[in-house]
Structures are given as structure tokens and as C-alpha cells.
Amino acid sequence: MSYRLGEVILSRETISRRVKEMAAEIANDNGRDKGIVVVGILTGAAFFLTDLVREMPEDMDVRVDFMSVASYGDNTTSSGVVRIFHDLKSSIEGKNVLVVEDIVDSGLTLSHLIELLNGRHPASLKVCVLLDKYERRKTEVNVDYCGFRIPDKFVVGYGLDCAGMWRHLKDIKYVIEE
Ligand code: IMP
Predict the structure, then answer these.
(1) Is there a contact between 57 and 27 (Cβ–Cβ < 8 Å)?
(2) Distances (CA, A) of 71 to 3, 86, 101, 107, 109
(3) What are the CB-based long-range contacts (under 8 Å, 24+) for 75-82?
(4) Which atom of ligand 1 is nearest to the CA of 141?
(5) Which of 49, 56, 110, 172 meets the CB 3.0–4.6 Å disulfide criterion with 10?
(6) pLDDT per position as a tens digit, 78-137
(7) Ligand 1: centre distance to CA 30 (Å)
(8) Is 105 a catalytic residue?
(9) What pLDDT digit, counting tens, does each position of 24-80 carry?
(10) pLDDT band at 150, cuts 50/70/90?
(11) What distance in Å separates the CA atoms of residue 98 and residue 56, rounded to the nearest whole number?
């Protein structure tokens, strides 16, 4: 099977506008004097996270940390049991944490990750996703900030990949299987 790029679902301008709105909402909810630790899930969310935090006010206490996880399962479905490849550099105990993920699909990976991070006793833990494929949800995940709800079709770009390809695209596009 081979893949080719399909039409644009979200243009760079649309993404950029929404990222600005989300950053403002997060800053507003959080309060500038209360610091947050923004936890990005590698690799996909790194692209979204770096744009998101740069839209936050300069006087807000924003820390950034990354985690790399993979869920056990076959290639197309995740089991939700996550294995940590790269853990956070700093403790999140007593901190206000914002988990940033590129896309929530079945919700299994994120729900397991939330459980794992809650076990480290943060003061609060919120979840921010760029994309939500809500039709595919298998388990409930409490998403606090969502960029866009999208239909159940595979997408790439702006950090999202298909077998490692197309993360670098500025727009988010559909993938066509041939
Ligand atoms: P789930 O919510 O546990 O099913 O898995 C979410 C993960 O699946 C995301 O972090 C992505 O890596 C991947 N994923 C799901 N849908 C897409 C897509 O349309 N494009 C690229 N990656 C996807």
C-alpha cells in the first residue's frame, strides 16, 4: 500500500489563529502569577507546543518539559498501556501541569498517561489537544482545551506523521491510501 497527500483540512492560517486563542484561554484560566509546567508528548506535539507557549504572555511563569511514550498494541490500534521512552526532567509534584498532545483518537494513550502523571501528585493536571477525533473514542478522556474536532480520517502535518513522514508540513492534510 502506498500513501499520497490529499487536500488541506486545516490551513496554517487557521491553525495559527486557533493556537493564539487557545494560549490566551490557558493564560486567562491559569492566572499569570501561577506557574505552569507544559508537558509535551513527543514527537507530534512538539510542533504545536512550541507555537502555543510562544503565544503565552511574557510575564507568565511557563516551564516546558517533554515525555516520549509509546502505547503497546499493533500498528493501527493502541492498547493504552504506555511505555516511557523518555521521562520528564523535573518533578511535577505540587505543580500545575498542562499536558499537550497532538491528537486524541481512541483516548487510550492519553487516559493511561493522565493516570500515570496523576500518580506523581501534581497540584492540578489539565489536558490540551490540537485535534480530537471524537468519533473514535473508546475511553473517556477529560480534554480541557481542544483546537479542532475532526472526522475519522487519517491526517498529517504540523507534527502529525504517517509512518514517520510529513510531520514538517505547515498545513494539516488528509492522507490518501492507494
Ligand atoms: P489513541 O488516542 O491512544 O488512540 O492514540 C493517539 C495517537 O495516535 C496520537 O498521539 C497519534 O500519534 C496517533 N494518531 C491517531 N490518529 C492520527 C492521525 O490521523 N494522524 C497521525 N497520527 C494519528
Answers:
(1) yes
(2) 23, 13, 14, 11, 6
(3) 77/106, 78/105, 78/106, 78/108, 78/109, 79/108, 80/106, 80/108, 80/109, 80/111, 80/112, 80/139, 81/112, 82/109, 82/112, 82/113, 82/116
(4) 2
(5) 172
(6) 666 788 999 999 999 999 999 999 999 999 889 999 999 999 999 999 999 999 999 989
(7) 27
(8) yes
(9) 999 999 876 779 999 999 999 999 999 999 999 999 999 999 999 876 655 555 666
(10) very high
(11) 13
DSSP-assigned beta bridge partners for residue 42? 68
Indicate yes or no: pTM above 0.70: yes
Residue with the three cell numbers 487557521: 14
> Which amino acid would we find at residue 98?
L
Residues with CB under 6 A from ligand 1: 44, 71, 78, 101-110, 133, 154-156, 160
SS3 156: strand
CATH topology of domain 11-152: Rossmann fold (3.40.50)
Q: Any residues with CB less than 8 A from the CB of 138 and at least 6 apart, and which?
A: 106, 107, 108
- Cα–ligand 1 centroid distance for 106 (angstroms): 8
The domain locations on the chain are 11-152
Task: Give the phi and the psi of residue 82 in degrees, each rounded to 5.
Answer: -100, 145
66 within 8 A of 8, measured Cβ to Cβ: no
Task: Report the separation in Å between the CA atom of 98 and the middle of ligand 1, taken as the mean of its atom positions.
Answer: 19
Which ligand 1 atom lies nearest to the CA of residue 45?
Answer: 10
C-alpha cell at 169: 508540513
